Amino acid sequence: MNDTLGKRIAEERRRLRWTQQQLADHLDLGRSAVAMLETGRSQPDVPKLLELEREGFDILFVLSGERCELAAARYLNWSLLQAISDAVRRWSETRGVS
Length: 98
What we know:
Radius of gyration: 20 Å
Order of helices and strands: HHHHHHH
Distance between the termini: 55 Å
Shape: elongated
């Protein structure tokens, strides 16, 4: 296994200020199993990793190395967002809504 994935798991765990034991508890593993994941000596159970997203774990970063918020910004249609914002502003102005 590529140990870069393990390094990203460790980085994401630290970003959330979790201990290895806390991550182990979320994954239903022992702490030593998390250490093995983080050092690239074992492979993660991807479905269990995906469940961590509910806890704030950036799965896109772990799997690809790209932070979720950066990827989302690249795919947003900024012109459409601006048009919607302008339409809402005009609508609220005509109705006296602030």
